[in-house]
Amino acid sequence: MSVTRDGANSSKLMTQNSRLMTLENQTALITGAGRGIGRAIAQKLAEYGAAVMVNDLDAAPALETEAAIRQHGGRAASLAGSVTDPAFPQQVVGATIQTFGSIDIVVNNAGYTWDTVIQKTTDEQFQAMLDIHLVAPFRILRAASGWIRETAKRETAEGRRVMRKVVNITSIAGTDGNPGQAGYSSGKAGVIGFTKTMAKEWGRYNVNVNAVGFGIIETRLTQPLAGEAASIDVEGRKIAVGVQPKVLEWVKSACPLGRVGTPEEAAGAVLFFCSPLSDYVTGEVLICGGGLHF
Fold this sequence. Notes:
Blueprint: H1 2-21, E1 27-30, H2 36-47, E2 51-56, H3 59-71, E3 76-80, H4 88-100, E4 105-108, H5 123-157, E5 164-171, H6 172-176, H7 182-202, E6 207-214, E7 230-234, E8 237-241, H8 245-254, H9 263-274, E9 285-288
Parallel strand pairs: 1-2, 1-4, 2-3, 4-5, 5-6, 6-9
Antiparallel strand pairs: 7-8
Helix pairs in contact: 2-3, 2-9, 4-5, 5-7
């Protein structure tokens, strides 16, 4: 009898735990979700039941992420466009609500690095880092604010508390600084202040606003440099990316876990802030970097 009773209790606990992790009936907007960490986040949230609006600067990778989610039985749509275009944040927020009927999770993930020492950094380069990492998340949340506020007020009047989630992506370059990344580090540090402010503004609307700061994660931006430097194209700009092998070796030796992280591991940290497990956590920064500090 005790075995049966214990089994029943275990089953009940598993059912309760599954409710804590489910994102069923939630809609997530994820920027920069065509590749790398963004794609892993989109797939992870879809795996747990969320409908996902995939945004990326380029249409092809956005469609690839959408197709991958659909192939595994998830719900997804995509809208390509630059989040640094002042008009685009309203477009992508509107498309998300029109397509899925709500917007419950926002992950401000879009970004890239454009590195050089300060004496070689142009005004355009510095401003580009602020625009993609700080101004774009501000515009996305401003665009979503009307729907979120009015919906929360209606739910409160009906006696319901529905929690929504914002996850802004920062970096250990924003918490610790990093040589050659004056613009990137400044933008990512600004994200932290923005996150804490929005947590205080939107708490009344039952929105948890948190940030995840990444260390070195395996993406095209952190690939080892070998021979001719790799580059990415960002709205007509050809920007060098990659990391010197000796720097990657230092990262592995300095990191307590002895390795760089994977996009899937990065997505796991974001999942926590998107799930009901974080319903009483707001204004916080979770570092997902294997213990590495610059």
